[in-house]
Amino acid sequence: MFSCTGYAAMAADVSLKPFAFERRDTGPEDVRIEILYCGVCHSDLHQARNEWQNTIYPCIPGHEIVGRVAEVGASVTRFRKGELVGVGCLVDSCRECASCKKGLEQYCEVGFVGTYNGEDRQGRGITFGGYSRAIVVDQGFVLKIPETLDPAAAAPLLCAGITTWSPLRHWKVGPGQRVGIVGLGGLGHMGVKFAKALGAEVVLFTTSQSKVADGIRLGAHEVVLSKDPAAMAKERGRFDFILDAVAADHDINAYLDLLKLDGTLVQVGAPETPLPVSVFSLLMKRRNFAGSLIGGIPETQEMLDFCGEHGITSDIEMIRMEEIEVAYERMLRSDVKYRFVIDMASMPAGA
Ligand code: NAP
Ligand code: ZN
Ligand code: ZN
């Protein structure tokens, strides 16, 4: 074991603070990573504050991790010391079930092991995430980051990137389709970039007047202010596909109404309370309402390679570790442009 410093939530209603803990030594299949940057996902906030009622404390969030390989285990063949690597939301799964065999580890039938707040399969306790100086991860769950990408701006690809990429690919979004992205936060802004890169006609729906110009700059063909009923009414029945990345309670029926016959609304945002669905909106036009969870390891690598080829990264605002609570409060006000990333050099040396 070696000692490590992180930032942990000790309970739902207190600020994150420095926390000393131990990480396992590098086993034969393990990669030890010195963390350079960690993106701040809205899920970190949901989890730190126990909004999904499943948080185990202390909780060290962070699942958009980019760093350099510091050490590899004896059986590790895919990575070498010094390489730029990433870790997303998953650090293990059963590897035997039908989902795992298809590379869909996020849908592992016995449950994947989350990068934080997950129960280790070898009985080594609850996992601690990327708000920390180092992490040790099985090589099967480590991703290669193209060296051409800015490592800080690549960090959000590990969750915000793959979570939007996976449904866009699964539902075969591409040229000739009119695609809506709802909410311009961390996920939403990656959704806009990817839908554009895949050739779709992209319409951004935002509640924030201040994000309209950015929506166009990021690749949207049109931006609709979702608080304007007349603007929403004009869009009725015009969409093949809509990706909803809103973190809070909101009216999804307003978006179901925008789908064409057989159109699909995929929910990736995970508000803490259930969202009522209008059955009539679904059945009147044989519309589909679906969900999607992050993405599997092979698909995450495919997305990273695509980003390397096309020069796609996240638009980020770098913060110091001690600014995390300010970042959370700004996320709650939708004041995020468009992902906070923690510079891990700012982590206090001892706790
Ligand atoms: P984020 O950066 O905070 O962005 C959320 C955006 O939603 C806001 O910037 C805002 O955009 C919009 N919004 C917020 N409150 C709203 C409201 N009351 N009504 C309408 N729109 C509102 O969050 P994120 O990190 O992108 O995460 C989004 C959600 O996805 C979270 O719930 C997160 O837990 C979840 N998530 C799911 C997965 C998955 O696998 N399915 C993976 C990662 C994250 P505008 O200002 O443009 O309106
Ligand atoms: Zn996330
Ligand atoms: Zn499995």
UniProtKB/TrEMBL annotation:
Query: From which domain of life does this come?
Result: Bacteria
Swiss-Prot/TrEMBL cofactor(s): Zn(2+)
Q: Does the entry feature the keyword tRNA processing, yes or no?
A: no
Query: Which residue numbers delimit the Enoyl reductase (ER) domain?
Result: 9-342
UniProt-listed CDD domains: CAD1
Transmembrane residue ranges: none
Signal sequence interval, chain numbering = none
Tell me if Metal-binding is a UniProt keyword of this record. yes
Matching Pfam families: ADH_N, ADH_zinc_N
MF-aspect GO terms: alcohol dehydrogenase (NADP+) activity; zinc ion binding
Q: Which keywords has UniProt assigned to this entry?
A: Metal-binding, Oxidoreductase, Zinc
Q: Which family does it belong to?
A: Belongs to the zinc-containing alcohol dehydrogenase family.
Q: What is this protein called?
A: Zinc-binding dehydrogenase
